[in-house]
Structures are given as structure tokens and as C-alpha cells.
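Thread: "does anyone have the structure for this chain?"

Original post by V.I.:
We have the sequence but no experimental structure in hand. Need at least a predicted one for the grant figures.
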Amino acid sequence: MSALEYDGGSKFMRKAKENPFVPIGMAGFFTIVGYRLFRLKSRGDMKMSVHLIHMRVMAQGFVVGAITVGVIYSMYKDYIVKPREELKALQQETKQRTPQMNMD
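Reply from O.Q.:
Generated one for you, C-alpha cells below.
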């Protein structure tokens, strides 16, 4: 890769295309943190440390969930969809060769 192609934005976009659930996890993380920080003043009698721990657990849970869904989706594509496509392509190739063999 040249130095021009290796900037932060293009690397992020390339990684996002490879695994689209990571940016979804990041967006959820920042959304949860932003919302919980916004709600910080109306936490009632809850201690600050407890509020921050709840915020962290919710945000991390969302990220772990998004990455888990991404891994399951990736495994589905690699182990179910891809073999079906390869089998279908092999069957198409076999059908195309069969008439040629009969003519010889």
C-alpha cells in the first residue's frame, strides 16, 4: 500500500466494509455513553460511581453483542452461503461439460 492510500479514513472505511458490525458497535457505544452522560444530572440518589459503572456495562454489552452478531454472520457466510455457491457453480460447470462429452 502506498503512503497516500494509508490514511486513517480509508483504513477505517476498508475495515468497516470487511466487518460492518464493528462501526455499529462503536456507534451504539457512543450513543449509550452520550445518553447516560446526558442523564447524569437526573440520576437521583444513585452514587456517581454506580451510575458510571452501569453506563460502562451497558456500553460494553452493546459492543460485545454487536461483535458477536458480526462473528455469527461471518460464520454463516463462510460456512453456509459460500459452500452453497461453490456447489451451485460446480453443478453449472458439470451441466455445461456434459453436452460437450456426448457430442465427441
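V.I.: this helps a lot. Residues 15-97 form one domain.
O.Q.: and The CA atoms of residues 3 and 41 lie 46 Å apart.
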